[in-house]
Amino acid sequence: MARYAGDSTARLGFALMRYSIFNLVRQALSGHRAWGPAWRDAAPKSAYDVVIIGGGGHGLATAHYLAKIHGISNVAVLEKGWIGSGNAGRNTTIIRSNYLLAGNNPFYEWSMKLWEGLEQDLNYNAMVSQRGVLNLYHSDAQRDTYARRGNAMRMHGVDAELLDAEAVRRMLPFLDFNGARFPIHGGLLQRRGGTARHDAVVWGYARAASDRGVDIIQNCEVTGFIREAGTIVGVETTRGSIRAGKIGMAVAGSTSRVAELAGLKLPIESHVLQAFVSEAIKPFIPGVVTFGAGHFYISQSDKGGLVFGGDLDGYNSYAQRGNLPTVEDVCEGAMALMPAIGRVRVLRSWGGVMDMSMDGSPIIDRTVIAGLYLNAGWCYGGFKATPASGWCFAHLLARDEPHAVARAYRLDRFATGHLLDERGVGAQPNLH
Amino acid sequence: MNASGPQESAQPNRLAGAGLIDRIRPLSFQFDGKRYTGFDGDTLASALLAAGVRLVGRSFKYHRPRGILTAGSEEPNALVELRSGSRREANTRATVVELFEGLEARSQNRWPSLALDVGAVNSLFAPIFVAGFYYKTFMWPAVLWEKLYEPVIRRAAGLGRASTEADPDTYEKAYAFCDVLIIGAGPAGLAAALSTARSGARVILCDEDFLLGGRLNGERYEIDGVSGPAWTRQVEAELRASPETRILRRTTVFGVYDGGMSGTHTFAALQRVSDHLAIPPAHQPRQRLWRIIAQRTVLAAGALERPIVFGGNDRPGVMMASAVRTYVNRFGVIPGRHAALFTTSDDGWKTAFDLAAAGVRLAAIIDARSVVAPVLTEEAKRLDTRVFCGAQVVDAHGSRALERITVREDAGRLSQLQIDTLAVSGGWNPNVALCTHLGGRPRWSDAIAAFVPGDVPRGMAVVGAAAGSFSLKDALREGAAAGAAAAEATGFKSVKHREPRVTDELTAVVPLWCVSESKTKAFVDFQHDVTREDVALAAREGFSSVELLKRYTTLGMATDQGKTSSLNGHAIMAALTERAIPELGTTTSRPPYTPVALAAFAGVHRGKHFKPTRLTSGHAWAEGRGATFMESGEWLRAQWFAAPGETDWLTIITREVRAVRSGVGVCDVSTLGKIDIQGEDAAAFLDRVYINLFSTLPIGKVRYGLMLREDGLVLDDGTSARLAPQQYLMSTTTANAAKVMRHLEHARQVLWPELDVQIVSVTEQWAQYAIAGPNARRLLERLLGDAIDVSNAAFPYLACAEFSWRGVTARLFRISFSGELAYELAVPARYGDAAIRAIMSAGEDFGITPYGIEALGAMRIEKGHVTGNELNGTTTAADLGLGRMMSKKKDFIGRVLARRAGLADANRAALVGIKPTDKSARLYAGAHFLTLGAEVSLQNDQGYVTSVAFSPMLGHWIGLGLLVRGQERLGERIRAHSPIRGGDVDVEVVASVFFDPEGARLQS
Amino acid sequence: MLLIECPFCGARPELEFVYGGEAHIARPAADADLTPGQWAAYLYARSNTRGVHAERWRHTRGCGRFFNALRDTTTDQFIATYEIGQARPPSVPAQKIP
User: Which of A193, B105, B602, C8 has the smallest count of CB within 10 Å of its CB?
Assistant: First the structure.
């Protein structure tokens, strides 16, 4: 409670009203006229200790933890559009920590722990909802790989259960158990997995970071880097030059382009991933379900829309929109798995630009250029990583050394061969 | 039954004589269990209105009573559950449902009934339930979110209910190609279609309605001296007679997608083939998804009338002015007896005049504009209707439907009017959605106070109301011109034709987004209950960009995707933040234009037809032998062959393995990939793709090979046979056949196009059977006779030959996956069935036993052969104990990157065998290795079990695994940790070959 | 749906094609004395161009041939297709809105 009173209020020049049922009711009586901006729409100063490029979930979370954990609040978050306008607001909102590899699993589990305390940390209800993530398997070989993953999760204290077909049927009786081309044999369940309200995560981090003094600067696009003696000491932006002690990039969907401004060429390809939402229907699907014999996953939002997706469109693209064959492919998966939703209507589809790294795992590391730090390559798994990504990137920026759970996310692992390839598909980013 | 007599009273709001309905075909239907009657040609909405039903649904959040707002696909309020059981459709817009005999519909989001909805109590909490209220609360105590708050929120979610049964109907997909696609068959679209069709171009004309004509059906226009509908029928007749024109009614073009270099695009359209019937006729789909590839497009999608935001504007009885005209003119239905008009446009006045023509005198015309064209006011005077100019409807009142409005007159005086129907016209928004699907942004027009097409997809012309041209004359002129231009652009000669004679009309508008003095809730987004106050709150809290506004308040995210709400919301936000609307911008419209059933996108690809099923040529034989099949990719393979009375799979497999190892067995291995590689450089090519040498392989010999990806990890393994100096036959694993083919094609065409080598997949051209066991040779001798000498001397281990057998080219390979004396016999696939029957018959005296892939799997684990479980894309040759195969004499794919520190690390996990120390213990794949006594943690992870089997020869479970420094740890006891199933088992690390380690049997 | 001009077969729907990644990246010669790091750059580093991108496609369900294409990655519009081994043709960025 203390962090919303006293000095921060004085520093910011306006009182940030704490979010609570008490204040909500009190405001209801006066027509909600006293709520102020959720975050300050700041104008850029000439210099900061740290500049974060990218006002998405990862950038804002980084700023929040820099201020909260490391006491570094002279921080600017630069966003070329409006905050959360990239993948933070285009994903299918799934959170989970059901990873296999020792380089990944502890990181995502740390993220899950942060999700579990997020609302209290931010004083913002991001609607974290742990209704379970179920990966279905359709063959003995698939079951064995899921068992291996489930065992790895349990070894790290992550919850995991291997369900047989009967247990899946009890949970989801409307799946196609009789006429399926690839019968459902069972599933790997993480009950603590689920969803969170993606936009609220952005706004919650923005509000909390802003409250601690971070400048959130929208409509501010980085157009170049300022170098002095081989070190990057600032950025050129559409709103002027800004100098910084350290600069962190968290620009999913634009990583290669911003990195190019610094002369870096990265092991990343950008691909379009489509997502879909249906008309709102009464509660139907309890948690998140993924199809193991096709490209399809689905959950239902608190508003009632079925939120689903599938595979990448298959070719590099920054178009932020998808193509029809993939729409059909996703819906074929849907009908193969749950033909009861056939008459539910697709309301809207959209595309996000995924920075696919060459082994399917992210990068949180220094770059070869002093002063420039990289947070990138999240493929289509960036949303669930938001809290830990911010936490670990803040750690790296503040202490110049990787956080223990993000140690494997090195940029040089492609040269050294210490790859983090969960699926074993190799250097084909459109297959991760 | 007919329109007279008792039906008359059952349809109290039906006008005599008027409309495009078929009064001699009455149709009965049910709404909320009550029976009603309408006519053929009605929509559910028009039939309900005719029957005097005004309350049709409840809103999402406050459960406000809602009626029918529009007469089209943009309807946000009148959503019903249509049909029942497995065909139940949630959220179906009553305004587009064609009435059919026996139609059943129910209202949604209400309990226990539509009239008495307990959820309406939410209205009492409306002061709390403002936009985004849930972000500010439900956080304490944390545990209650999962246990209480969220379950309550989720229960309240959604509108209609989905069926829990599989959709019983079928769906089709179709392609169509045309020179010109015309979207919308209103006046502009019809004019375009006429001029294009007359040129001889291939035309496709789509309209979402079941009647062509668009607004012509809802207005009282005259064209060339005939009524709008009559003119439409004439045009339709001409188009139908035109051989290159296809008319798709009930077809919504809902998305624009990519096309080709020449400017073509793909348009996705949904044809509702059978939705106007109770159930689809036999052999007809419910719906058909069209992929239309068009050279040129004329977008004539019309415009959508926009509501005005004022207090109580959601009451049943408040209706769009154009919708009122449609109900009167097209359906012969008057929505109410006591009506008024609230307009800011000339167009709205038509409603007053049409109602008057239908015998309904308006209580008042309230025009927000102070100055109105005299021709309008004079007409109103002639009709004896009160006119308030510069006036506004401040609030609409009523409990379950509209009863009264408060009007603020020009002078500021407030007056009350008792009415049951209020027609509202806030101007028109051109329907620009399809212009923006490829990323184009619309442009603001001050003239019509709306967005008009800006950047449009290449090859698209926008005409008529969709382009912001609201008069009939302009629509016809622009349509004809665009149609002619499109025809010319696709190589046809357009024919000049006379412009039709139509009357002039007035289309002026002065926007009024929001009535500021309203005292009661004023709705911006009806379905989602987003009010003016919610927009104001979003502005105060900094959610002032259009996208943040949308996301924070859910404005525009309802099933109408903001068609009736977005611009009003943006205009209010612009005013609050003192910006111009174009400066604020607009949200992006996404496909589909109107919601599309998921099943329509899937078409026939569901159930067994989800993916193709590949069968080997021996499938029928295996079926006849009682095989149980399992999926192996798209293939079906025999898992095992149960003998009569056998039910336990382990018993079956044990029998099969023992039969092979003691006698002879046969297994269908046709699914393994087979790639024929020929050319002068075939040998050099294989040397570059395998880690070991193949150029040194003698003709008539087979060699095991291992292939890496360029990153140094194993891609696949298999054998390659040299059939001739310049011909190799490569085999791959079943799972990786396509991947290897792609890899080889890449190597051949992209990396080394200079090599003279051709490759072709022959997997499906050859049937192949493994004949294994001590009696395999004797069987082959009997089977093949003189065709080939299979003695050990003439045909030793790893020999191969192509020969003629019974007049057919056959191939024989002496290779063994089972570790037994074994051969693989291949024949052209069309002889596969005959071959397996011949093998069985030749083997009868030896007790030949067919075996499936489970027995094969058990035998390969006994022999320590790797397969997909070990070749999982993360293992190196060295991990698998095959590092010494890597040739140092040549370059090959993966050579350099395999040397990276991370891949050459001595601490990597290596392939070992394991057996349980307690021989009765069962092993499970996926268990992780831990050093005995080590704490369970990922840091202590020593590897994992890749494959397990019960070994019939050893009498206990065995397994293969990848263990850190495994080859140095033979004899060590470790723990196989599997908390997720089976529990922990102590195992001994052993060599990976469990059976016949010297390989004596396969050489014999 | 993209209609892709196979240089050998003409325009065909994208369903017949498989994307093959960035074009004009030559595999280091067998005798080149490169470090694994330099090899890694060949295999992993990508220009990932926002704009006109030279890339490989294969007409997998057609003639089976690989070919190169120029495509604007901001609009997904194809600008040119050409045979493997040919130089990249001069390109003008595709219109912003295809």
Answer: C8
